[in-house]
Design goal:
By secondary structure, the chain is mainly α. Helix content is 78%, strand content 0%. The protein is built from ten helices and no strands.
Length: 170
């Protein structure tokens, strides 16, 4: 069966589009990691710089052991933010950051959390959402080629993992 010239051109254009957009994955992940790693570092550092004020906020939100919780949250955000920025242990630290943002929803943003279905705009407008989304992106797609993880680990992208998982063709 002969392929029509129009179908051939559509397939070629689509293949070109996929290749072009796929080549943007690592630069995009680098930007996500740099921006959000720095944001996590800054918010964690702010908590650690003013522990008494944040302890008061955590107390108002009903967080158990507020002083210890401020130190744990601040340290997690600051240290994991720097690791995210560097692309070192990206996936494990993403899990810690997602957990921290879930706790933020459960304590400081309960109204937004309860509005998940009834008012999604309120949920996505809450402060933890963008932080959590960035961590989820890195957890799912990895840190990208421009990372320490890639330098030491060798497999830098989901494509590399997929191609190594597929059986060799005869």
């Amino acid at each position: 069966m002969k392929t029509s010239p129009l179908l051939f051109r559509v397939q070629a254009a689509y293949t070109l589009l996929v290749r072009a957009t796929s080549s943007l994955k690592s630069p995009f992940l680098l930007v996500v990691r740099l921006y959000w790693g720095w944001q996590f570092f800054q918010t964690g550092g702010a908590k650690l710089d003013d522990i008494p004020a944040f302890t008061e906020h955590f107390t108002d939100w009903g967080v158990p052991l507020p002083h210890l919780s401020v130190i744990l949250a601040g340290t997690t955000e600051a240290v994991c933010g720097l690791l995210l920025l560097a692309g070192l242990a990206s996936r494990p630290i993403s899990i810690l950051l997602i957990f921290t943002m879930l706790l933020a929803y459960l304590t400081a943003e309960t109204e937004a959390l309860h509005a998940f279905f009834s008012d999604p705009d309120k949920f996505v407008s809450a402060t933890p959402f963008q932080f959590m989304l960035a961590a989820i992106l890195v957890l799912i797609f990895g840190p990208g080629a421009f990372s320490i993880d890639c330098f030491f680990g060798g497999k830098c992208s989901a494509h590399a993992a997929e191609s190594s998982a597929q059986p060799a063709r005869a």
